[in-house]
């Protein structure tokens, strides 16, 4: 996420819509991408992103610059996305097996890990995690935040970040092994 | 000496995410040179669980997002103005204009004054009535009561003597 000048933040906090547009431009890619990866679909990501920017707009006047603006945005985005994902947990994405099970393996071999496949793989691997683990993976592996930044954004301690990432990666490993097994069986 | 499981645990998280200090990194890298099993594990973790996410394409932000946010802001500002107007009207209904307490005090003072005046007048009338009554009483008993005749034989003296 890009750095934002303090003057712009102050003007945005006073209700200056032009300044708020600058805040939006600097943070929209982060907000939308985190929302998209955590809720795992475009429509919901759009809804979560709107909610995040409305929270930023209304609460910016109370922001005291005691913590970094970036961390504050990370926290609002991660919390909104996680809450949305938990609320809509029943509307789960396509199960992993449906995409990478027996039928899919042949086409997967042909696709040679092209971009489309890569995107689908990421989407489906994330779909196998719970919202908390998903947020950690997204913030770490896609957004490149450090453990400390993730801990601040999610208001948890670093060991919890570490254990969530560990469990998520162990799950990915076992899913990928299952996928390999299906691939070999189909040949 | 650390066991492979301990190295694998660190490889899965801290080493992969560059969260270790220089000494720990050197320790793990030296172990990876010697241990084929841990080397395979490291490559698997990197290629299968981390790289797909690191290489994932960033999603372009939908163009309509800013329009939606802007609409929401305008709508919420509109709602805020309405709410402020409503609160202002409500305050107007509930709170008194500044002059009302002054007028109320003045009326109270006038009322208190008139009550006091009335009481004084009533007392005066009562005193006057009592005076008239005494005069009437004395006149009915006759002026003899206060006559200064020398033999002092007034009806009162007669009564006592």
Number of helices of chain A: 10
Main pleated sheet of chain B: none
Topology as H/E string of chain B? Answer: HHHHHH
Oligomer: heterodimer
Number of domains of chain A: 2
Would you identify the regions of chain A where 5 or more consecutive residues have pLDDT less than 50? 94-112
Average the pLDDT over all residues of chain A and give the rounded result.
84
The radius of gyration over CA of chain A amounts to 19 Å
Task: Explain the overall architecture.
- The complex is a heterodimer of chains A (187) and B (161).
- With 187 residues, chain A is mostly helical.
- Chain A folds into 2 domains: 1-91, Rna Polymerase Sigma Factor, Chain: A, CATH 1.10.1740.10; 93-187, Winged helix-like DNA-binding domain superfamily/Winged helix DNA-binding domain (Arc Repressor Mutant, subunit A), CATH 1.10.10.10.
- Chain A has helices at residues 6-13, 17-39, 42-59, 69-87, 96-100, 102-111, 115-127, 131-142, 147-154, 158-186.
- In chain A, α9 packs across α10.
- The longest helix of chain A is centred in the last third of the chain and has 29 residues, at 158-186.
- With 161 residues, chain B is mainly α.
- Chain B contains 6 helices and no strands.
- In chain B, α1 runs parallel beside α3 (36-54) and α2 crosses α3 (36-54).
- The interface between A and B is large, with 42 and 32 residues.
